[in-house]
Amino acid sequence: MDYNVSIDSITVGQQLEGFYVLSEAAVKVTAAGKPFLSAMISDRTGKLPAMVWDYAGPIGAADVGRVVKLRGEVSAYRGSLQITVDKLRLAREDDPYDSASLVPTAPIDQDAALHEIETLIDTIADDDYRRVARTLLTRDLDVFVRIPAAKSVHHAFLHGLLMHTAYMLRIADFLSGLYAEVVDRSLLLCGTLLHDFQKRDEFTFSELGLVTDYSVRGQLLGHLVMGAQEIASVAAELGVPEEKSVLLQHMVLSHHGEPEFGAAVRPMCAEAELLSHIDSIDSRMEIYREALAATPVGAFSERIYALDGRRLFRHE
Amino acid sequence: MDYNVSIDSITVGQQLEGFYVLSEAAVKVTAAGKPFLSAMISDRTGKLPAMVWDYAGPIGAADVGRVVKLRGEVSAYRGSLQITVDKLRLAREDDPYDSASLVPTAPIDQDAALHEIETLIDTIADDDYRRVARTLLTRDLDVFVRIPAAKSVHHAFLHGLLMHTAYMLRIADFLSGLYAEVVDRSLLLCGTLLHDFQKRDEFTFSELGLVTDYSVRGQLLGHLVMGAQEIASVAAELGVPEEKSVLLQHMVLSHHGEPEFGAAVRPMCAEAELLSHIDSIDSRMEIYREALAATPVGAFSERIYALDGRRLFRHE
Amino acid sequence: MDYNVSIDSITVGQQLEGFYVLSEAAVKVTAAGKPFLSAMISDRTGKLPAMVWDYAGPIGAADVGRVVKLRGEVSAYRGSLQITVDKLRLAREDDPYDSASLVPTAPIDQDAALHEIETLIDTIADDDYRRVARTLLTRDLDVFVRIPAAKSVHHAFLHGLLMHTAYMLRIADFLSGLYAEVVDRSLLLCGTLLHDFQKRDEFTFSELGLVTDYSVRGQLLGHLVMGAQEIASVAAELGVPEEKSVLLQHMVLSHHGEPEFGAAVRPMCAEAELLSHIDSIDSRMEIYREALAATPVGAFSERIYALDGRRLFRHE
Amino acid sequence: MDYNVSIDSITVGQQLEGFYVLSEAAVKVTAAGKPFLSAMISDRTGKLPAMVWDYAGPIGAADVGRVVKLRGEVSAYRGSLQITVDKLRLAREDDPYDSASLVPTAPIDQDAALHEIETLIDTIADDDYRRVARTLLTRDLDVFVRIPAAKSVHHAFLHGLLMHTAYMLRIADFLSGLYAEVVDRSLLLCGTLLHDFQKRDEFTFSELGLVTDYSVRGQLLGHLVMGAQEIASVAAELGVPEEKSVLLQHMVLSHHGEPEFGAAVRPMCAEAELLSHIDSIDSRMEIYREALAATPVGAFSERIYALDGRRLFRHE
Amino acid sequence: MDYNVSIDSITVGQQLEGFYVLSEAAVKVTAAGKPFLSAMISDRTGKLPAMVWDYAGPIGAADVGRVVKLRGEVSAYRGSLQITVDKLRLAREDDPYDSASLVPTAPIDQDAALHEIETLIDTIADDDYRRVARTLLTRDLDVFVRIPAAKSVHHAFLHGLLMHTAYMLRIADFLSGLYAEVVDRSLLLCGTLLHDFQKRDEFTFSELGLVTDYSVRGQLLGHLVMGAQEIASVAAELGVPEEKSVLLQHMVLSHHGEPEFGAAVRPMCAEAELLSHIDSIDSRMEIYREALAATPVGAFSERIYALDGRRLFRHE
Amino acid sequence: MDYNVSIDSITVGQQLEGFYVLSEAAVKVTAAGKPFLSAMISDRTGKLPAMVWDYAGPIGAADVGRVVKLRGEVSAYRGSLQITVDKLRLAREDDPYDSASLVPTAPIDQDAALHEIETLIDTIADDDYRRVARTLLTRDLDVFVRIPAAKSVHHAFLHGLLMHTAYMLRIADFLSGLYAEVVDRSLLLCGTLLHDFQKRDEFTFSELGLVTDYSVRGQLLGHLVMGAQEIASVAAELGVPEEKSVLLQHMVLSHHGEPEFGAAVRPMCAEAELLSHIDSIDSRMEIYREALAATPVGAFSERIYALDGRRLFRHE
C-alpha cells in the first residue's frame, strides 16, 4: 500500500491510500441495474478517474470540490489509468492532509509579496489615496492574500490575486517614475491595488479556496462596477474629495480598456490608460509562463483561446 | 419697431427689439483694428447671426446660453439674414420675457404625463420596488420633470426626460401584461422609471435648462454606473433585500443593450432585455418624429448619424 | 405491458407498446456481421434510444420524421435507458395515435389566437393594406395556422407562427396608438401579419408538421425576398398602388433590422423600424420563456447561443 | 466672342456664348436686397461658377441638370475663374448643341460592345437561360445601352452599364471555360448580363442621362431584390423551370458577395461565387483607371473612399 | 489473400496484404496490461483503423506519415470496418509500392501544366521581371512542381502548387489583355508566378510529400514576408531596378487582400489588386470542386468553414 | 523693426524681419488679374498667414518646407492676424538663422539619451543579438539620432525616434527583470532598439528634418517588412544563427500587435508580446503629454483621433 502518492507519479497495479480532491462525481446505474459512483479525483499535479462499484452514496455530486480519503487499486482501462475504489469517505477537519499538495498555489513567497505591497502603499504621497488604499487593504487582508485572480486562463491558483497585484504594483511604480510629467503616482498605485479587489465577491470559492463559479451579484454587476461602488462608499466614509473618488472609480471601471473586453467606460486619464496596459501585460506574461511550461523547446504551444487562438513559440 | 418677433418670421429691413438666447458669442477685431461682437441669437424657432460693431464687452463668450435684450435692424448679407445690433444687455431676473418662447419644449402636457407616471408607480405590486421608485421620484421630482433627456439626437428639449420616461412606462406596462409568464411587472416598471435618472448629474445645464455639456463625473463614470450607485444606496437605506437591489442595478447597467452602445453588462433577465428594447424603440420613434417633420412627403430625410447614416422616408 | 407511456415517465424494466416518432434511424452491422437498426424515438416529452437486433429493414433512414408503432423492453446501458424493440412497423393512417402527444405544440388557444388576428386585420383602415392582408391570410390559412415559426431556437413547435404573429400584432396595435403621429397603423399591422409568411416555403416539414430543413428555394432566396415577391404579386393582382406595395415589401425585406442579421435592406420608415423591434422582442421573450423553464430559481441558464452565449438569470 | 468653349480651356477676360449644363442653381438676395442667380455650369471637361445679377427667374433650382444657353464674360474672383452672365435661357429641343460634349461618356465603341454582348448571349447553350437573357435584353435594349452603371465611384458616365456588362461577360466567358467542371456557362453568362439590369429603376436620371439620385423604389428595395423580381416574373412568363429561375434570382441577390456590401444572401453556387468576384474586379479596375488618370507617374492618388481610403500608386 | 486493395473497396472478412500510409499511431496498454498498437492507415481513397495486438514497437507515433507494409484480416467493430494486423514493417526504399496510389494527387497533366507556365513566363516582355521569374523558377523547379499548395482546405495534394499557379497564370494572362490600359502584364505574370513560392519553406512535408505542419520560420514570418525577402535578394543579385523589386515584393506582401486575411499591406497598384482577386477565385473554385464532388445533385454540402460556414448547392 | 520674433508673441501693427519656415505656398490671381502669393509661415511656436501682393515667383509651392527670410507688417483680417510681406527670399546656407527655433524638438537631453541607449546595448548578454544591435546602431547613428518617429500624432519632432526608443528601452530593461522566467532580455532589448529603425526609409523628410510624407517604398512595403529585411541581411552578414535572426525579424514584424493595426504577424513569443505593449504605452503617454499640455486643469481635451475620438481629462 502506497500513501498520498501524487497523481502524476501513479502507475498501473499500485495499491493506493490517501487524500484527494473530489473534482467530479455522479452516481450512475449499470446495465444490470446496480448503482455506482463515477468520479474524478485530483491533486495539484493532475487528475485520475475513479470508480466505486455498488455505491449509491452518501458521497455524490454535491461534494464536488471537497477533500476525500480513499483506498483502491490502479488499473488500465482502454489504455488510460483509473482507480477502482473500495473505501471512500469525506475528509474530516482533523484529518492530517496537506492542502498545499492538493491545490495549485502561486509560485511566490507570499509574505514577501504582501510586505512589498504594504511598503509601496505606504509611499503613496497623497493622503486621501493612501487612506483609501490602506483602509481597504486592512479591511480585506485575509481574503486579498488568499484568493485566486481568476477561474481559469491565468493566476487561477491560491494567492493568485496577491501575485498579480504585486507584479502590477512594481510596474506601476516604475512607470510613474518614467512618466512623472503626466502621471499622478498616488492615483496610479492606489488604482492598481484596488482594480481587482471585488473578485472577492464576483466569484464563489470551494472549501479549498479555488474559484468554482461566478456569484449572482458577480454575473449581474461585474467586479468593475462592484469595485467602483466599494470605493465610492469608502471614500465617502473617509471624507475624500469628490474628484479623487471619481478618478479612482474611473480607474477601476475602465481597467479592461475597451467595452468589448468588459470596460464600463474607456480610460480618459493617463493613470487609467497605464493601468489597463499594466493589467494586460501581467495577465499575458502569466499566460505565457503557464503555456510555455507545457511546451518543449523549439515547438509551439497548443492554441491559447484567451489570445485569439494563437500558438506560442518556446525558443532557445 | 417690432417686439419679440419669433426668429422664423423675421424679414429684411425690420427694426427689432426683444429677448433672445445668446447661442454663440466672440469678440473679434476688424482689419482696421476695431473690436466687434460676432454672435448668434436664438429662440425656440431658429437662429440668426448678430453683429455689434465697436463693441468690446462686457458681454462675450462667457455669456453663451444666457438671455439678452437687444435692439437692431435686419439686413441681408451674402443672401442670408443678419441683425446689426445697436443696443445689447443681459436680461435681468425681473425682465418680462417668456422662457417658453426661447427654448424648445416637449410637445406634451407635462402635468398629465407626471400624473400618469405617478399613477403607474402606485400600481407596482412589490413593496420594495415601489418604495425605491417612490423615494427617488419624490426626492428628485423637480429636476426629473424639467430636464432634457439628451444633449442632441432626441428629446433634447425641456421636459424631454419626463416625456421619454412616460412613453416608456406605458410600453413597459403593456408588455408586462403580454409576457406576464416571464416578466416581473414591478421590477420592469421600477427599472424603467429609474433607467435615465442620473442624466441629472451626467450633464451640465444652461440657465434656461438645456444640456450644455457632460459633467466631469458624467464623462468619467457615465449615467449607467452613477444610476446603479444611487439605487444601491437608496435600496440600502430602505432595507430592500440584496437580490432586488442587484436586479434593479443590473437593469440600469444593461439598458444600452450591448457594450459597444455603452452597456456595462449585457441584459441577463427578461426585464432588462425588455428595458433595452423599450428604450431603443422610444428613442428611435422620437428621432423619426423630428426627422420626418423636416422632410417633405414622398422624400427622404438627410442622413441620420444616430442611425448609422440612414435616410428616412416620409410616405403618404 | 404498458401502452403509449410518455417518454419522460419510462422506467427500467418496463414492457412497452405504443406510437412514437422515429427521430433518427440507421441500419448498422455487428462485429459478427449481423444487421441491426440503431434508432431514436421521441414524443413531445423527450427522446429514447431504440435498438432492433437482426433487422435490415424495410424501415430505415428514409423514414425519419414518421410515426412508428413498436413493442419492446426498457433496459439501462452505460447508465442510460434504452429500449430493445421486438416489433416495429410504420403507423397507418387509421391508427389511433394522438399527434398532439407526439410533437410539441404552442401553449396557446389556437382558435382564440386566430380569431384575434382576424379581428385586428378587419380593423385596418386602409382598404389596400387590408385587402392584401385578408387575401393572403385567407389563401394560406391552413398552413399559417399550423406551421412552426422556426427549426429551433424559438417557436419551433406546431402553431408557432400563429403564436408569434398573434403576439406581435398585439404589440403593433399598441404601439401604433402610442406613436400615431409617425406610424401608419394600417401599414404596420399588414406588414406584421405578413413578415414571416414565407416561412411556409422556406422550410420543409415532416409528416407531423415540424421543420426538418430549409428548402432549396429557402436557402437560395430566403423568406424575406420570397415574402416581398409574394406581396408584389398579390398587390399587383389587387390593383394596390405602387408605393403601398413597395412599402409593404420594404417592411418584409428589412424586418431583421441589420444586414448582418439577414435584412436585405435597413428599415427606412417608422413602421419598418418598429416591426424589426417587435420581432426581436417577441423572439427573445420566447427564448427567455423556454430557457427559464429549464432553469432553477436563483440560478443561471445554460449559455444561449442565439443570444451570443449569454446565460440568463431566473430570479424570484 | 468665343462659342461653346470647353470649360477646361476657358481663360480670364474671355467673352463666351454657348450651351452648358446647369449643375447647381439658387436664387439669392444681395445685401442691397436685389435678387441674383448663383449657379454652376458644366460640360464633360469641368465646372465653372456663374453669376446672373438682378435675376429672379424663371430659371432656378428646379432646372438643375438641364441644358442652358448663356452669354457672359469670364473674370477672376478670389483667385478662381467665374462667369458673369448677361443672357440666359433654357435650351430648346431644336437647339444645335452636342450632348456628347456636355456629359462624360464611356470610352468604348458602343456598337461593338453591344454586338459582342448579343453574340455571347446567342452562344448560351441552355434554352431557358438564353430565352430569359434574350427577352430582357430585347425588352430594355435602349435603356440598357444608355444608362450609367452608378451615380459616382465608377462607370458613372453614359453607356457605363453597357461597358461594365461587356467587360464582365468577357471574363465570365473565359472563366466558365477554365472551371468548366463546376461552372454552368449558361447560368453564369445569363446571371452576369442581368446582375445590374434594375439599375434602370433604382436610379432617377437627368434629361441628359446621368444619375441624379436613387428612386424611392430603389432606396426601399434595392436593385438586387428588384432584379430578382423581374427575373421571377419573366421566367414565369416564359415557362422556365422553377429551379433555374431560383438560381438566376440567387445570382442577382448575392452578387455583392457579403451582406455588409449589400448582398441579400451569400453566394452558394459556383456561378454566384464567380459573379461576385467578376463584378468586384471590373468595378475596381475602372476605379483604378479613373484614379490613375488623375495621378502623375511615380506618385500616389488621393485617398479612394470606395477602397477604404487607400491611395493608389501609379508606377512606370 | 488480396494485395494492395484500395481502401474504398475493402469488405468485411477480407485477408489483406499491401502497402499503406501510417496516418496515426499510438502504443497503448489493454486493461490486462498488454501493449498494443492503435493505428490508422490510409491511401488516396480513404482511411481504415488498424489494431496490432501484443505489439510494443518498434513502429509507433514517430513513424506517422511513412509507408508501412502489413498483413491482416478485416472485421467489423461497432458497425465500422477495422483491420487486425498480424504482420507489420516499415516499407523499404526498394519496395515495389506505388506512391501515386497512396497519396492524393492533382487532377492535372503535370508536364503540360509546367510547359504552359514556362511558355507564359517566356512571353514576359519586361527583361527584369522575366529574369526574376526565370531565375526563381529554374532554381526551385523540383520543389515547385511537387508540393501541395496548402495543408488542407484546397490544393492539399501533390502538385497542388503547380496546378494552382498554372490556373492563376491563365487568368492573369487573360485579364492583363482586358485591362491593358492599367495593367503591366509583365509585373502581373511575374507576381502571380511567385506569390506562393515560399510555401516551400513555410511548411514541413512528410516523406511522401504532403504538408505535415508549419515550420518555425513559416509560423513566425509567414510565406508573404519570406517571399518578399527572396525576391528582394534575387532582384539585387540580378541588378533589377529598385522600383521593380519593390513592386514585386508589394504584390507578394499584399496578395491576401486584407490584413484580417493575412496581407502585410493592402494592394495599392492594379496588378496587386488583380492578383489578390485571382488567388481568391482559384482557391474558391477548388473548394467548390472538392465540396461539390462529395454532394449529391439537388442537395447542399456540409458547412464549409473556409467560407464562413456556408453550405454550397449542387444544382442540375 | 523687430527681428526674429517668435510667432506666438507677434501683435497687430508690428514691423517684422526674420527667418521662418514656409509651411504652405500658392500663387493666385486677384479679381483684377494680378498675381499674389498666399502663404503660411511657421516656427516652433506656431503659424501665421502671409500675403505677398503683386508677386508671381520665383518662390512658390515647390519651396514648401524650406526656410525663407522676409520683411513685412502685421495686420488683422477678419479678426485674425496676418502679415503683408514686402521682401521675401529663400534663406542661404550661410544665413544666421537658428533651426532649433524654427522646428519643434524632443524635450530631452539628446546626448544623455544616446549614451543611455548605448550603455544598455552594451549590457546585452547574447553575443549575436548584441552584434546585430551594435552594427545597425553604428551604421545609422546620425539618422537614428535625428529623425522624428512619426509624421504627426506623437513624437513628430526632431529626435523623436531617439526619445521614443530610449523610453522604450528603459521599460524593456525593467520588464525583462520582472519576467526573467519567460523573457530573453537580449532578444527584447535588441528588438526594441530596432523596431522602428526603418522609419528612416519609410518617410521622406524636409530640409529641416521633419517628416513630409511616406516614401514610395514606405507605402508599398511598410517599415515593419523593411525592418525585417534589414535585420535578415545584417544577421546573415554577421553569421548570426538562423533562429535568432528569425526571432528578431518576428519582433519587428509583429510590433503593432494586431493585423488591423498593421502587424504583419501576431506576436508569438513573450518578447514580441511585450514589445507591442511597450510601444503602445510609450506612444500613448506621449499623446497624453501633448494633449494635456493644451488642456486646462479640470477640463477635457479635444477629441483625440488616434485614440478613437476619446477626450482626455486633465485632473488636479
Q: Can you put this structure into words, describing what you see?
A:
The structure is a homohexamer of 316-residue chains. Chain A is an alpha+beta fold. Chain A is built from 10 helices and 10 strands. In chain A, the strands form 3 sheets. A 5-stranded mixed β-barrel of chain A has the order 2-3-4-6-5. A two-stranded antiparallel ribbon of chain A has the order 7-8. In chain A, a hairpin with a 5-residue loop joins strand 7 (203-205) and strand 8 (211-214). In chain A, helix 3 (127-139) packs parallel to helix 6 (185-194) and helix 6 (185-194) packs across helix 9 (242-253). The mean pLDDT of chain A is 92. The A-F interface holds A 167, 170-171, 174-175, 178-179, 181-184, 187, 243, 247, 266-270, 273-274, 277, 280-281, 284-285, 288-289, 292, 300, 308, 310-316 and F 167, 170-171, 174-175, 178-179, 181-184, 187, 243, 247, 266-270, 273-274, 277, 280-281, 284-285, 288-289, 292, 300, 308, 310-316.
